[in-house]
UniProtKB/TrEMBL annotation:
This is Amine dehydrogenase. It is found in: Periplasm. Its main location: periplasm. Keywords: Electron transport, Oxidoreductase, Periplasm, Signal, Transport.
Length: 399
């Protein structure tokens, strides 16, 4: 069809008037942005990161993630909900000791210059818990034990002025460190003996030996004397764990592979066994302790909590738990047995309502157990934190 000039003008005008709306909006935006002042653009605000000067207040759980292939870490968790507060770095094969007030952590570890060979430096790092900062470090002889994290290998004297470091080259000895002076003041040979039990008073310490004896070393400056007990346990029939607890009356609590508790007096020149309690007597299933820090003691309740597994055999003394047993020293009676799988280390809070924290070897977590209300001192798992990693030692503060 042929259009007249007037019809052609009308057709073209209609095309201009009815331009699609989205395209018109786009054109209008471009034109508007071209004439908008640059000053109206919102200025760039970079994000600012800050670091808290102190960790959150409240009682803590300290977990020693000792490593062989790289840096170890002392992790800090809140007791109430196991939220993560931070960490304190260390070298390989770390050992940990927490001060009585929970404000200072001592860490012994090694720093290998070339990892697989070459020079190795053994260091004690002293950390302030509130700030997770290193206050000082003390170089110690490169005789310090290279082992997974355990108790009794790094210990404090009663007044917390001296630090005892277990050595093994494999010959055994103990380095005595003056913390304030940052120096080793003595090395005490302890042939055939391993582990440190500091006395409640003074600067003495005792150590269990392969003969079934305990030897007591009394320090006077850089000098020492030694006294040996009689044979206190049978290393073949029923040896003891190095791990120990201290009862509220001052007695040492030593645990045997077979499930007995020795209550020992170390206040004199030699250690004496006061009483032996067979915790698993009359219970079927061949139950025995297993793990590393295999017991935890509540002074409020005068009660020992034990990690136990069934079907025990020669060599199962490091097996993870199946249950936690609560044993009253006052009543000399097993009070409860609570399901608690895969635990290899245990710690307990003080008070009439104890809370248990344990190292779960299978899941590599810290597990929290609280009273369940199902009976006298029956516990149930209440929480776990997957940040923990694998550990064989942990501790709690009692603030």
């Amino acid at each position: 069809m042929t259009l007249t000039k007037q019809e052609s003008k009308t057709r073209n005008l209609s095309r201009r008037v009815f331009t699609p709306a989205p395209l018109a909006a786009c054109i209008a935006t471009l034109l508007l942005s071209a004439v908008m002042p640059v000053a109206q653009a919102e200025p760039f605000k970079p994000e600012v990161f800050t670091v808290e000067k102190t960790i959150q207040p409240g009682p803590n759980v300290f977990m020693n993630e000792a490593a062989w292939g790289g840096a170890s870490q002392i992790h800090v968790f809140a007791q109430d909900d196991l939220h993560y507060k931070g960490s304190m770095p260390a070298g390989i094969t770390s050992q940990m000791k927490v001060s009585k007030d929970g404000k200072t952590v001592y860490v012994l570890s090694d720093f290998a210059k070339r990892i697989t060979y070459g020079p190795v430096e053994s260091v004690v790092q002293v950390y302030d818990v509130e700030t997770l900062s290193r206050k000082k470090e003390i170089i110690v002889p490169n005789k310090a034990v290279k082992a997974i994290g355990m108790t009794q290998l790094l210990e404090l004297s009663a007044d917390e002025k001296l630090l005892y470091v277990q050595n093994a080259t494999p010959a055994t000895s103990v380095s005595v460190i003056d913390i304030a002076a940052r120096e080793v003041i003595a090395e005490v040979p302890t042939p055939g003996c391993y582990g440190v039990y500091p006395a409640l008073k003074g600067t003495s310490f005792s150590t269990p030996c392969g003969t079934g004896q305990l030897k007591t070393f009394t320090l006077k400056g850089n000098e020492y004397s030694v006294e040996a007990s009689g044979k206190l346990f049978d290393v073949d029939a029923d040896p003891i764990y190095i791990h120990s607890e201290r009862r509220k009356n001052g007695e040492l609590i030593l645990t045997t592979f077979g499930g007995a508790l020795y209550l020992a007096d170390d206040s004199g020149k030699t250690v004496k066994i006061k009483e032996k309690l067979q915790v698993n007597a009359g219970i079927e299933g061949d139950w025995a302790p297993g793990g590393y820090a295999i017991t935890a003691y509540s002074s409020t309740l005068d009660m020992v909590f034990m990690l136990m597994h069934s079907g025990a055999y020669d060599g199962s003394h490091k097996n993870g738990s199946e249950e936690i047993w609560a044993y009253s020293l006052k009543k000399k009676k097993l009070i409860s047995r609570s399901p608690a799988p895969h635990m290899v280390a245990l710690s307990v809070t003080e008070g009439k309502t104890p809370v248990l924290f344990g190292s779960n070897e299978e899941d590599e977590t810290i597990d929290k157990y609280v009273l369940s209300g199902d009976g006298d001192f029956m516990f149930e798992k209440a929480a776990a934190d997957e940040k923990a990693g694998w550990t064989t030692s942990l501790a709690v503060s009692h603030d």
